[in-house]
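User: Teach me something about this protein's shape.
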Amino acid sequence: MNTIRKLLVDVFAKTAIVLTAFIVSLSLNNVKSVEAKVLDEILSYEITADVLEDASVDLVYNISWKVLDSDSEGPLEWVQIGIPNRYCNSTEALTSTIDSISTESSGGNYVVIYFDRKYYEGEVVDFSFKINQGNLYQVYPEENVAEYTFTPGWFDNIQVDNMVINWNGNKVIKYEPSSLNNGDYLSWQASLDMGEKYTVEIQYPLDAFAFDLSQHNDSDGGSYEYSEHNLFENLLYTILMIIAFIVIIFIMALPVLIPLLIMYFVYKAATGFSFTRDKKITRTIIEYHEACPNCGGAREQGKDKCEYCGSSMIKSEQEIKEENVDGIDKNALKYKTNGEYRYSSDPNKYVRVNVVTVPHIVHTTSSSSSSRGTSCVHSSCACACACACAGGGRAGCTKKDFYRK
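Assistant: First, the predicted structure itself:
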């Protein structure tokens, strides 16, 4: 009977491992396939910049946005476009395709645009808007220059086929990287992969515009949203993100955990097995040589070998069996933690204790006789070791894409 139970447990354990690995692998593949979906493509992303007398910058955005998939997460209804920092002084829609425009500074800095209608797979929406942006420059009095560092909003899940930055070249004394001339404008052009960024730097003499020496570039040239919040907000944001991540992982794991728990309790009820851990204690009486039998050197406390010649300092060893302690001081059995303890008045005799924890799968069946008032319990134990392997958008109708600044 015990052999049958042992076989059943072995089969159950292996089945559970294989099932878990399969479900986890399937879940991860599904997640990857969802993440791999490309929902949109930006055909054209053009930004034109003009520095005003107060040193703020008018930025005009012209974007052609193509919908590639309107089934997975719905049609395109609104987007978020990253802007340099929270000092956006004004916004203005320039095309009729924009129904409303506003700014958002939660978890980043964006212009939020709602379109005039829903756009479906294969359709392209062309839209333009204008913002006036402050605090985009850094002053360097010792060099008598002010420098603008500008990184357009990037897109983690969308490819940009053609990005163009046009910056009015009036009074500019230096710029990076090298650019093309487009009339009165410096011009940079690039195609961007998903998540790729592009940064330009433009310098002016301090007397070119009304630069405020107390102001500075608050965009940090394309940092994450942490540059826009104080330390407390950063910490709170990080904690909330961690909590959200844990909750999502837990929810994703439920389809795996619930069937396994049900299988566990059903099998436990049917066969009476349970998991437990037992402590195994080994006690050994060690008698040391008072001096090294080879070189005569004195034994160093806590050392099993001679520090001079390396010879063993152990004269004899005797393991203590709890079931047979005849002729052995029973006080040696009181030691239950790892270590070496003085065994008797003899300075060279010690009890060495080694404690290990052993996992067991325990089966129990019990039957009782009411007429005799006795019960008979049969148990068998077996060690078990199992190894399981686990790995590790546009976000629906509510968020099409975002860029953090």
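Now, about its shape. Confidence is low (pLDDT under 50) at residues 219-229, 365-405. The two ends are 67 Å apart (CA to CA). If you'd like, I can walk through any region in more detail.
User: That's plenty for now, thanks!
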